[in-house]
Amino acid sequence: MGTTREIKSPAATTSFSLDGNSDSIQRKKLGLYFIESDDRRTAFGRGYTGGTTPVNIRGKPIADLSKTGGWTAACFIFGNEMAERMAYFGLSVNMVVFMFYVMHRPFSSSSNAVNNFLGISQASSVLGGFLADAYLGRYWTIAIFTTIYLLGLTGITLCATLDVLTPNQDNCDQLALLLGSCEPAKPWQMLCLYTVLYITGFGAAGIRPCVSSFGADQFDEKSKDYKSHLDRFFNFFYLSVTIGAIIAFTAVVYIQMKLGWGWAFGSLAAAMGMSNLVFFVGTPRYRHRLPGGSPLTRVAQVLVAAFRKRKASFSSSDFIGLYEVPGKQSAIKGSGKIAHTDDFRCLDKAALQLKEDSAEPSPWRLCTVTQVEEVKILLKLIPVPACTIMLSVVLTEYLTLSVQQAYTMNTHIGRLKLPVTCMPVFPGLSIFLILSLYYSTFVPLSRRITGHPHGASQLQRVGIGLAVSILSVAWAAIFERYRRNYAIKHGYETIFLTPMPNLSAYWLLIQYCLIGIAEVFCIVGLLEFLYEEAPDAMKSIGSAYAALAGGLGCFVASILNSIVKSVTGNPEKGKPSWLSQNINTGRFDYLYWLLTALSIINFCIFLYFARTYKYRAEQVEIKNNNTSLS
């Protein structure tokens, strides 16, 4: 196969005979020898790139990195994310109320519809990550999908503004809404609303996996302060998310109350338009990473090649070695080489070079070690974001259930009455406070305990977040039981839309603040973990894992709600379900206890995977230590 030569793996400590037949050979590290070929460049049909070398918007190397990237470029990206999150949270809370009060949909179906919208917009983020990593690059993916996002928000504004797109509001007071006697929206009116809503979700799906990765791309990974900058970037990135959420829960709600729904949704569209302008203004400052070709194709090639050679043996006399290209660069555009690991050894057969392989092998039959390791990394990453799905379920339930709770309680602060839809602002405020104190308080204290330079590792932060979320939902269950008993005792069992003047809604702040703390630790730690651990040419796919987990959480919440309604309710016998529209006859506290139990089980599963996971940097360090000892 052209000119081949053997190179000793960094992990090698003993000699290894390639034609040995003993069973012990099969158990030896397969990374002991790599076989490099001078023909691999031709076999793949493309040349090499300088690993993760940043380029300008034209794909050319940047002559002077000091004039691009850094915190200046990151600030433009923060602005785009702030507006996107403002629109996202503005829709997530206000759309439920809009469907109930304006489109005259039942509250339960409205919340489920919005949950599905949130779920689809997050779960489909894998598409945005794929397009960014494969073809468009992160910049152009953001540019295209923010425009789509803006079109969707404009459509929602028109749906709320034009009378022809909403049902008749005459004779539709609070009692009529409660009895369900208001004129419902026509099917074509709901179709129009759902169409623009899902266009907006499609736009969000393209932005979400790219923005955090594109922002992290602005920092020089060769700098001695790279780790510190990256750690701070993801904290400030989530701070921009929080500011967007706070604006959505306060200013947008205020605009809706004073000026109406059209102005409220229009303000979201205007903010998105301004953020697009700011993002494009920063174009000359951005550093870019070249797309590395279809990651899904590379994954498929590894799976097919491994399947084809499933019966081949590493101890066979036909075994030459594990295949890799020569030099420091990999055959994958935009990616450096990845050292061999012993995980998922069945996939190593995709890189198994046999004597029967042709001089110009098809990548569907023979893959490089780096390509195989990409697939291994993607598989190893899955359990961590999967364990955050439960946190997303809790957050999704809070967005709807806690708003229903607040409607039954007193939301006054002195003489000021806070709108119920403003209640979710408090998790945002707690996040803002925690992020503000993170480096001055948490990091120094935790550093003394853990010895970690950043206070806690990425997985430790995710674990802290999951643990705090358990406390939050447990408190929610305790307080909901108290609230329900209070309502029944004081005669509010049937008049659930009438606030109880002597029961303050600010008891909900405890669960809100706890879930805010959980978000800070879990989501920020997860984003940083996925960016650092993902393969060079799959950073957006890695970030999409977090969004996918969030989307699946929304779907799980909807499915869980449907199951609870069908199992716990019996309309024929007059037995209300736990999620009865009359919150005072329902049992929200039972649902919260169920979420608590599921969260505890989920946390135990996370601890298992976190303890067994090895960071890529640790694996490289182990290999280097083995090399120095050999």
From TrEMBL:
Top-rank lineage group of the source organism: Eukaryota
CDD domains (UniProt xref): MFS_NPF
Key words of the record: Membrane, Transmembrane, Transmembrane helix
Subcellular location: Membrane
Transmembrane parts of this sequence: 86-104, 116-136, 148-168, 188-211, 232-255, 261-281, 377-398, 418-439, 459-478, 506-531, 543-564, 590-610
CC per GO annotation: membrane
Bilayer disposition of the protein: Multi-pass membrane protein
Signal peptide: none
Xref: InterPro entries: MFS_trans_sf, POT_fam, PTR2_symporter_CS
UniProt GO molecular function: transmembrane transporter activity
SUPFAM superfamilies registered for this protein in UniProt: MFS general substrate transporter (SSF103473)
GO biological process: oligopeptide transport
A Pfam family annotated for this UniProt entry: PTR2
Family per similarity comment: Belongs to the major facilitator superfamily. Proton-dependent oligopeptide transporter (POT/PTR) (TC 2.A.17) family.
Name the UniProt record assigns to this protein: Proton-dependent oligopeptide transporter
Species this protein is from: Trema orientale
Gene that specifies this protein: TorNPF38
